Amino acid sequence: MYNHEQIEKKWQKYWEENETFKVGIDKNKKRFYMLVEFPYPSGVGLHVGHGRVYTASDVQARFKKARGYNVLFPMGWDAFGAPAEQYAIKNHIHPSEAVKENIEVFKGQMKSLGLSIDWSREFSTTDPEYYKLTQKQFLEFYKAGLAYKAEKEINWCPNCKMGLSNEDAQGGVCERCGTETTKKLKNQWVLKMSKYADKLIDGLDDTDFLDKVKTAQINWIGKSIGASVNFPIQDTEDCLEVFTTRCDTLFGVTFMVISPEHPYIEKYKDRINNLEEIRKYQEQAAHKSEIERTDNTKEKTGVVLQGLKAINPVNNQEIPIWVSDYVLSTYGTGAIMAVPAHDDRDYEFAKKFNIPMIQVLEEETGQKKENETKKNSIVAVLYDDQSNQYLTINWHENGGRLLIGGTIKEKETPLECAIREIKEETGYTNFELVKEGFKINHHYYAYNKNQYFNIECTTFLFKLNSMDQQAQQLDNDEKFDIEWVSKDVIEREIKDELHQKAFQYVTSSNAMIGDGIHIHSDFINGLNKEDAIHKMLHFLEKNQIGKQQVNYRLQDWIFSRQRFWGEPIPMIHCDDCGWVPVPDEELPVVLPNVQAYEPTDTGESPLANITDWVNVLCPKCGKQAKRETDTMPNWAGSSWYWLRYMDPHNENEIASKEALDYFGKVDLYDGGMEHATRHLLYARFWNIFLHEQGFVPNSEPFLRRISHGMILGPNGDKMSKSKGNVVNPNDMIKAYGADALRTYEMFIGDYSKDAAWNESGLRGCHKFLNRVWNLQNKLNDNLGYTKKLETIIHKTIKKVTEDIDRLDYNTAVSALMILLNEYEKEKSITKEDYRIIIQLLNPFAPHITEEINEICSLGDLLCNTPWPVYDSNKVIEETYEMVVQVNGKVRGKVEVERDTSKEDMEKLALDIENVKNHIEGKEISKVIVVPKKLVNIVVK
RNA sequence: ACCAGCCUGGCGGAAUGGUAGACGCGAUGGACUCAAAAUCCAUUGGUAGUAAUAUCGUGAGGGUUCAAGUCCCUUGGCUGGUACCA
Predict the structure, then answer these.
(1) Would you report the helix, strand and coil content of chain A in percent, each value rounded to 5?
(2) CB < 7 Å to strand B — which of 614-653 in chain A?
(3) What is the mean pLDDT of residues A265-275?
(4) Among A159, A452, A662, A939, who pairs with A369 as Cys (CB 3.0-4.6 Å)?
(5) Using CA atoms, how far apart are residues A8 and A851, in angstroms rounded to an integer?
(6) Distance in angstroms (rounded) separating the CA atoms of residues A174 and A176
(7) Would you give the end-to-end CA distance of chain A in angstroms?
(8) What pTM did the predictor assign?
């Protein structure tokens, strides 16, 4: 058994003393930038989940180094944030003290994992030298007109006197103290990120992010192309402006909805007759989070605005205005036109409040033909709630199973027709109407009349009250059975498109959101959705009612936080000059060293209480002025840190031009899926801006983005302190060594997926390394590879190389285990054999492999040795196992030469005893031969 | 509710449309030992059979194909993210 403690210390010391992983600009070498999201150094320390991520990055870094790249693999600390501030409030120490301690713990843990990090590039976002540059970059945003002050709502806890994130205010309750939160308007700094929405979408083309990451970003930005339409408010000069992606449904608008925060409520409060009711509703909405308001499982709420009406500009219809919290003030104009027939949310709202619907789009079924005869018809569904069955008509071979259908006669309403048809065809007499579904536009051909028809079909659902039945009144040619069947049978057996669709409409409670042709829509009647949108847009613009508009979900970035432990925003407010940037030479604006960090009653940052810090002279006019006391969000420091690693000790700029040009962009960026939208978008936005200002050479900062899975506790739950299932890497390293821990964390499963911790698995990897160690006893003096092992060695080199490239770490380790198994079957192995396995294993288990290499004098230090290459001629086996199938089932296997011909393969296959048994007495209809693989004999 | 992803033995997980379960853990039996640990050897998806072999089997139901864990449709469950986005 090897002594891991001693070996690991030895090699970690060696790497540190020899600066093995220190990297500089070397223009003769290709560079590779491996970045992993830097951690927030909490008091808890690393857990094995971090270990997985850092190990994987380290494997990649060591591998790329061996392949000849100049590898930049840095680490730093994202150390601003609330936990350190809370700690400071409690203990009356400066947060930087807590941060310093935590960093030491984290760094110690990382070092004991044996990571090949260039520690000379380490920094923390809380270093004044670093945040000086963060402040400088903020001022660049300000100078470019991209930073502005605006009134924005925050979640506010009246007890903690603190602004809260949505996350901390979940369920309208402060996470810290349980007090009900309110909303508070604050004047805040905002970055104009929305201006970059299109650039953030287009820039994705220059990246190699995982598809799901790209999708997440595109959905977050939420670009939609539509129209803004103005609905005049009756007896006022004002219009209610709405954004819609479906201006083709304007003729189906039956009401308007505005958000509870809409300014018109204030503006027209004197004309609103039920203001008290509205106020009450606003109050309720204020306590709900956007997530609650946007939860579609909850019932819709709302109040109609009495005293104000809107006018539909396309037909001058007067329509009511409702107030409801399903409309958000933060998206679009905070007001919508509601088309209940063609929008699910409006549909649900209209149903709850009994607001009428107008269907303006009919789905088309069947094939459209020339010379169609027009007809009106019905399809009716009769439901029996006693048996939970529906009535069908079974025509057997003359048309299969259908619902009740028929043509509307002259002077008959569709409803009258439906009732008549049910009575005539089925004889049932006692039933009542439940609902009328959407109309369908159907095309079909009637064989008996040799004619094409186009029908407008109205759909109905009736409920049976009793089984009373008269004799049916049928024509002579009507031969069918009436049958009660379940929903299941209907969905399976009714093949007719019209009847299928009709059944769907009357039994589901959704709006009709698909495409079709327009009805009841004046000048767009008969057009499909796309054409109707075009024509409507044209109409809106011509009549100055509205215009085409692009809308984004992406909002501007609120950049203010009312906290102490963040980068001070370097602005000074002067009563005469307004907002004035802190002059360059006075940066950084450093956080003062004080005794108390409690927040203020007014919701301002604790900095506001430190008067000798706040009061300054205006840089412009020299009069008394005040510093901005808000600080930057946590996301600020992480929005450019990868640039700093390129030249971390540069005092004046982000990094030197030389370093920026050489290291360029991050090649591989590893982080969690939870950062796929916010952090990654902020970082890209920041970088695109810096590029436009000429500070950095690339517009996109990251080439490839991958996401890793979590390590779950042994019980499959997320690891957390409160669940008591956190596994500390220190304990594992002590018991089994860093190499075993690293190997296990790579072997545990697919790197992109979550995996549950299992210490037995770790023991297995420890055993594996020990067996590799014990190969020392098998060395012989022969040269070269052992002949018998040659193929498997080359195959393993290929497999491990490709797997690391693909991030398939688990199968790479497994390939090495297989190689070891083969070695162990041999009586003895050569030094070359031994050297190759430890070389391939080195990125995973760097300490023990280096030690074996030294003890057995196998060659140069592994950390300085190029990655092995395989000989593609030696990867292929001489023979292979040919599989023989009969009708796709394996019936035999036979070992054959590599280059056996198709004919011979077939012959050999037919010669197998078991295969003969399975084809005996049957006719061979086909033989499929896949060279170097299998033969499949198809028999009848 | 929406978006994304996932679902394979007792467990973690392998499988360019071509032998399902590589590799590891665990379990069972055996060797070594006074004994245990460690180590080594053998077996290990279910069912039937001494065996050869047969049969079932990748959440469920359909489909495409000579051949489906893999592709298509429908559906259930789990996880993550979120925004009723008009």
Answers:
(1) 40, 25, 40
(2) none
(3) 92
(4) A452
(5) 9
(6) 5
(7) 61
(8) 0.87
How far is the C-alpha of A626 from the C-alpha of A615, rounded, in Å? 5
Kindly report the average pLDDT of chain A as a whole number. 89
Is the pLDDT score of A12 beyond 80?
A: yes
Distance A311 CA to B22 C1' (A): 70
Amino acid letter, A20: T
Whether the beta carbon of A851 falls within 7 A of nucleic chain B: the reply is no
Sheet holding A303-312, edge to edge: A303-312, A317-323, A255-258, A335-338
Q: Verify if strand B has an atom below 7 Å from the CB of A96.
A: no
Distance A903 CA to B52 C1' (A): 28
The answer to whether residues A826 and A789 touch, using CB atoms and an 8 Å cutoff, is yes
- The pLDDT confidence band at residue A687, using thresholds 50, 70 and 90, is very high
Which residues in 309-368 of chain A line strand B, with CB less than 7 A from it? 325-328, 330-334, 336-337, 343, 345, 348
Query: Cα-Cα-Cα-Cα dihedral of A580, A583, A588, A590, to 10°?
Result: -50
Lateral strand order in the sheet of A702-707: A70-72, A31-36, A666-671, A702-707
The residue length of chain A stands at 940
Q: Which residues contact A494 (CB under 8 A, 6 or more apart)?
A: A392, A400, A401, A402, A403, A500, A503
- Phi and psi, residue A663, nearest 5°: -80, -25
Please, what's the b/e burial string for A881-920 (b: 16 or more CB within 10 A of its CB; e: otherwise)?
ebbbbbeeeebbebebeeebeeeebbebbeebeebeebbe
Estimate in Å the CA A889 to C1' B54 gap, whole number.
12
Quote the pLDDT of residue A507: 80
Question: Whose structure tokens read 């797997």?
Answer: A803
Pick out residues 142-171 of chain A having their CB under 7 A from any atom of nucleic acid strand B.
Answer: 166
**pLDDT 10s digits, A818-839:** 999 999 999 899 999 999 999 9
Shortest-distance nucleotide from A337 CA to C1': B86
Q: How far is Cα A143 from Cα A141, in angstroms, rounded to an integer?
A: 6
Angstrom distances, CA of residue A257 to CA of A243, A350, A744, A878, A892: 12, 11, 57, 75, 71
The protein residue nearest nucleotide B5, judged by CA to C1', is A212
The C-alpha atoms of residue A34 and residue A74 are separated, in whole angstroms, by 8
Half-sphere exposure of A1 (CA within 13 A, CB side): 9
Structure tokens at A763: 């023991």
A681 touches strand B (CB under 7 A): no
Residues of A 762-801 whose CB lies less than 7 Å from any atom of strand B: 763-765, 767-768, 770-771
Q: Which of A5, A68, A10 is nearest to A853 (CA)?
A: A10
Using CA atoms, how far residue A320 sits from A256, A313, A791, A860, in Å, is 6, 14, 80, 83
Q: Give me the mean pLDDT over the A319-323 stretch.
A: 94
Residue A496: phi and psi, rounded to 5, are -65, 125
**Identity of the residue numbered A651:** E
Q: Write the pLDDT tens digit of every residue in A413-443.
A: 999 999 999 999 889 999 999 888 889 898 8
- Encoded tokens for A911: 């010669």
Amino acid (1-letter code) at residue A532:
A
**Could you give the percent of chain A with pLDDT greater than 90?**
55
Separation of A712 CA and B79 C1' (Å):
12
Burial, A370: exposed, middle or buried (Cβ in 10 Å; 0-12, 13-18, 19+)? exposed
The per-residue DSSP string of A512-523 comes to --S--EE-S-GG
CA distances (Å), A177 to each of A91, A157, A159, A164, A169, in order? 19, 9, 8, 12, 10
Q: pLDDT tens for residues A356-396?
A: 999 998 888 877 888 889 999 999 999 888 887 889 888 87
Chain B nucleotides close to protein (CB under 7 A) are 1-6, 11-16, 18-20, 22-26, 38-41, 52-55, 66-68, 79-86
Tokens representing residue A820 in the block: 């070891």
